[in-house]
Amino acid sequence: MKLLGTIHDLLERHLASICEEDVRQDALRYLRGLKSLLATPVDMTPRNVIPLEDHVSQRVERAVAVTRSRQIADARRVHQSAVGFGWDNYDDID
């Protein structure tokens, strides 16, 4: 992008010295294209790459969810063996 910015600046300065109208129009079209390109934000992250922070947080969230589910299942087994009733009334609690 830095090279395109340099080309843009040089062409913009050179534009005043172009005398032939058809060449000038071509240069103007090219200059407008460069301006549009330079104004477009560029995401340098490849599409198939997940940022490390996202990957780590997804793994942590998954591990927490699995651990939490196991703890709830263990608590339910203990509750049912000790008390024998009542747990099913709380199935909607997560």
Describe this protein's structure.
With 94 residues, the protein is mainly alpha-helical. It has three helices and no strands. It has helices at 2-14, 21-39, 52-82. The longest helix is centred in the C-terminal third of the chain and has 31 residues, at 52-82.
Summarize this structure briefly.
This protein has 94 residues and is an all-alpha fold.
Query: What is the total tally of β strands?
Result: 0
How do the SSEs run, as a string of H and E? HHH
DSSP helix fraction: 55-70%
Mean pLDDT: 77
Distance between the termini: 50 Å
Which structural class fits the helix and strand makeup? mainly alpha
Tally of DSSP helical segments: 3
Uncertain residue ranges: none
Shape: rod-shaped
Provide the β-strand percentage band: under 5%
